[in-house]
Predict the structure of L-rhamnose isomerase.
Amino acid sequence: MTTSFTSIAPQLEAQAIELPSWAFGNSGTRFKVFGTPGTPRTIQEKLADAAKVNELTALAPKVALHIPWDKVDDYQALRGVAADLGVELGTVNSNTFQNDDYKFGSLTHTDSAIRQQAIDHHFECIDVMDATGSQDLKIWLADGTNYPGQGDLRGRQDRLADSLEQIYARLGDDQRMVLEYKFFEPAFYHTDVPDWGTSYAQVTALGDKAMVCLDTGHHAPGTNIEFIVMQLLRLGKLGSFDFNSRFYADDDLIVGAADPFQLFRILYEVNRGRGFDADSPVAFMLDQCHNVEDKIPGQIRSVLNVQEMTARVLLVDTVALTAAQNAGDVLGANSILMDAFYTDVRPDLAAWRESRGLPADPMAAYAASGYQQEIAAARVGGQQASWGA
Amino acid sequence: MTTSFTSIAPQLEAQAIELPSWAFGNSGTRFKVFGTPGTPRTIQEKLADAAKVNELTALAPKVALHIPWDKVDDYQALRGVAADLGVELGTVNSNTFQNDDYKFGSLTHTDSAIRQQAIDHHFECIDVMDATGSQDLKIWLADGTNYPGQGDLRGRQDRLADSLEQIYARLGDDQRMVLEYKFFEPAFYHTDVPDWGTSYAQVTALGDKAMVCLDTGHHAPGTNIEFIVMQLLRLGKLGSFDFNSRFYADDDLIVGAADPFQLFRILYEVNRGRGFDADSPVAFMLDQCHNVEDKIPGQIRSVLNVQEMTARVLLVDTVALTAAQNAGDVLGANSILMDAFYTDVRPDLAAWRESRGLPADPMAAYAASGYQQEIAAARVGGQQASWGA
Amino acid sequence: MTTSFTSIAPQLEAQAIELPSWAFGNSGTRFKVFGTPGTPRTIQEKLADAAKVNELTALAPKVALHIPWDKVDDYQALRGVAADLGVELGTVNSNTFQNDDYKFGSLTHTDSAIRQQAIDHHFECIDVMDATGSQDLKIWLADGTNYPGQGDLRGRQDRLADSLEQIYARLGDDQRMVLEYKFFEPAFYHTDVPDWGTSYAQVTALGDKAMVCLDTGHHAPGTNIEFIVMQLLRLGKLGSFDFNSRFYADDDLIVGAADPFQLFRILYEVNRGRGFDADSPVAFMLDQCHNVEDKIPGQIRSVLNVQEMTARVLLVDTVALTAAQNAGDVLGANSILMDAFYTDVRPDLAAWRESRGLPADPMAAYAASGYQQEIAAARVGGQQASWGA
Amino acid sequence: MTTSFTSIAPQLEAQAIELPSWAFGNSGTRFKVFGTPGTPRTIQEKLADAAKVNELTALAPKVALHIPWDKVDDYQALRGVAADLGVELGTVNSNTFQNDDYKFGSLTHTDSAIRQQAIDHHFECIDVMDATGSQDLKIWLADGTNYPGQGDLRGRQDRLADSLEQIYARLGDDQRMVLEYKFFEPAFYHTDVPDWGTSYAQVTALGDKAMVCLDTGHHAPGTNIEFIVMQLLRLGKLGSFDFNSRFYADDDLIVGAADPFQLFRILYEVNRGRGFDADSPVAFMLDQCHNVEDKIPGQIRSVLNVQEMTARVLLVDTVALTAAQNAGDVLGANSILMDAFYTDVRPDLAAWRESRGLPADPMAAYAASGYQQEIAAARVGGQQASWGA
């Protein structure tokens, strides 16, 4: 017997998932980036699209920025644009992988001038945060090497520690740094922050305002990600999530698309570790690439997937589960979990959405809204946003 | 006791490894493509660079073309340019992944007009082959889907078979088709030719002129590639190799860079299956991306790696090995193989190169040649070649 | 809108999943095999347990035998025992991995006497099939090597082909051979039948009565198994399934336990390729190890998982799916699939079971039956069945 | 130009690699354990075999014990036996995976009585250490679950922390605890110490005498192990190595057999991080299973592999390497590393061994010694040692 939907609704109401501005631009693989009609040319247009997602779902009140892709002259003004659209500016993401100077590293570089340049870029990001009121500086580092011997792994790690220390020192009292780890790509032999252990050791050395960012697509094949979620919550160091899903590498597919049951297990550990609590330090965010599917409905689908799976997780009869676990009842315990996973929460969610003045089916509502046709007609000319700009 | 170097020299003399024209252009990841001074702007400049590799190593007499990247008006003229440089035009590679029409497939597309366009592109490639005298049409298909349900796996496979049949029918008597398989990328949920079994089943259905192409980077983690080499040679269907190496995905690193012992085992099976024989149907080729290292010396290093490893393989005492295998002497058999692997063949190879009028150390000879400085100075302006052009 | 349950019931009624006799014995890892009260000591007791599964589910009318584990003097008598219990004897599985002679191979061995012994064992299995009326001889070969050089991959493959030919020749008109492939284990460097391509090439060389057996746990990490299902059905060579699930290696967990959505996709392709049709050549079977969970409810849970997932697959609106696929509507097509996956089929299935005189909840019915307590009390003394006996 | 052999000989002379007593017993897979003539029946016979390895190589002065497999009444006496054979007793390994009580966990168990039993077992191991003079208590924990929901990941981790704390408190001033991590097996869904991050977080919470044990076979596919070596040395927490090699899972093959270049890179980072220094806290040890190859020569081959690869690593021209790294010379830096890797150190090592009164070729010396024939003749009757006893 799972818990009743009514009892979990308040928790669902508090759910918020930050959207990445870049998900609304074009993206692709090294082989090809396909364009699509209606793709935003500016951060203002990206915000408009993100606001549409929030309007239809009430799940996505914040939009993460990527610097320099979303660079503007006046961040106060941008904050106003967002506010007018009903959203806030969220996490600021730095970029140290597209400047020619960073071919052999940024925060880890042997050349102190280039390393300083990368540190300065993060200072600039903190300035942006000051202007936007953003809480988090997210650092995903593309640094690494392609061939054994190309770099000195140890020296690079030491320089990384020093660079992070300098950036950390610049953070305001209410600001945080989240350090993302990634198994591989774009570097192929070694990556300077390849696993949660490295991110954890680095942020622990910095202090309380530094936390780990877990991207669900950044692990070796077969890794038990929910275990890491549990461990980081237990250690008090899970700062944020980048949601997406993967079959092979960092596929950046829609969260829940590749292995819905894995998403269920991950969110179960979030809840078990009180990551959904009001005072939880965990920020939830999407990080995805809509290479072949439509971007706005891709984002809507994603936040709905997280919402639906959260509902299933909250339905788990944890009292019965604990009893079965303590009794060594393997099949019983497993079936309590599966019972919640297999429960169809969609009708209850649809009704509940309507009761809150939201469309029962946000995907259908988007399709019916005409917004896609509008932007396709309006956004003609200019340079469609992508990772390159 | 390994075999003597003298006895294996004649086999080494016959070795030829085709170079890919695109290895001389810029390449990168979805995050960034770094440019480098001296990068060719045209196929003619690519041929010049390839010819340099061959001049210093006598290992690379052919250059593979990629259509449309290497498209020219007059292929007869291009053939002449190559001949003047001391090389030949080799395999013709088709491209069905960069046209906007191919977003959802090419040879597998549900839309018969788009599918015909992709078939026609291969007809055009065969026309190029007629003009260049190339033997092989290589088909690597980016077709696949990113989400379960996006496509009908079965229907796509059937349309692929039909498309290949039409292309096959156009081949001349001395022309072949080689069908490459790849585990994943650029598609993330399914790929239409993901494994050797699929390629084998498809080419077997076509006839004797269709063969499998094995790219050493296109397998699932942990796959025993030398077993596949053995099996395809045994079945008479190994048409060609694309050499490179990988740590994670399709990293396209220098062959032998990631796991030299794996390269040794692969080449051992090539030799065991008579793939080095004069009448062998196996074409050897590089397929690499020099993202952060210099391109021309990257290619020199690659063909030298194959040559050095071939020498080690030829040194294996196969009589003693067979005896140990039949005796169930696990450690003895393994040590016979390892003995050859650990033999330092470099001094003998250097002396032998000199005896043939080649530089003892082609890497050093290239560095000393001033060629890199020359092209860096000369190739200013224009558009550096990359996958995009 | 998914299809209605009523319309799919007839197809569900025809479903049959063979149980492996060894699932009722103890199993474990190289570290430990845990015993449990009530574990069968004989094949007759295994049949009784299997019959219990069938009694409560009407899904498991056949029991596969493993020779020599299930060896008896009188197979006709055993057939009678089964019939009295309401089940039939099914697939006969050979065993060439536990005899000391097979340390370095069986059907691939260099020693012709040992190879003949392994061939003779299969002749003996065919004799058993003649007596039991079994249709299928299943060959899973543990042959392989642990170290490079230990064996001659090519020679072993050729001897395998010859051995299989001799066994194939002995098959009766209504008998089949199914050749199972496995990525690795118990051999660690190479396995003689490691992938579907090898099994396909070997059985194709034999003739129509030889087919491929696909065990869902026997693939490299990340392999798209449903693609292989599609391909083998398309090629007319999918003979049988061994269902189970895996997180890492050949974990042999309960089917659907690790990745339910993968099971959904696999069964979707079975249906797409007409593998559920009455005249389909595909035999469905479990192959699992209940190391820590109870065995009989483990088997009940497994067949129910297959049944529930089959129901979800049959609910897919294939007409709408095809339309969305042809329109390039990625999100639409995916959501039609997911709609069926997320449908809770359990209430309809429970009612339908009751309408057929079966318990609505077979797991609960088993727990209430007292059978477990009965066998725990009765089966005292003797040697509990396991892989060793 | 690599460094000269003469200059590295002193470092090689100090090398010591501990042997595991269990490597001399029989081992296998869940499918079969093959016996071999001459296999020890007792820990005394295992010590004799280990002493033979050390006699011929001077590389293996210590032997690790496994409790209860190597349990004796009088450890002082055993210490004397070892001393008479010219070896010492080394690391003590606990075992919490073969008692029926540990089916659902040991140091993590929900039942406090069973958990106390597991803690007490470690107290007993510390008593053994007191008697044998062993420095290290090695804990490899088989604890984990097979099905989602079976256990509470968080609660288990907390109980693990508490159990380790109690054990840690019992350690003497000169004793250490090393906590091994393992990706998977024998548990299939989750393992309580699955990665270096978990081991690091747990031992850091304990204190200076607790360190991480890195087993080279215990990582996800594709993991860059040398990076972890670098990181743990940098963090001062690399306590010990378990050497072996793997193609797929925890294959426990001879170290250096599967990927010699990986061993080279790992040992390079050991040297880079001063792990070979006299005052280094790193203990080197083998942990292998000789399933199909002879055990004593298997161990000789293993220590020689480590010695040969260490020699190659010490030959690296680190000054030139650093210069190339700082210059961004990717190919140059890589080739400095490869130059050492491809150097054939075997002739120098053979001469050097002779100069120290050791056989030039320890493998040949063992084969010629007649020892294998002696033990095969002498060790008849009794129970051959294996994991079970």
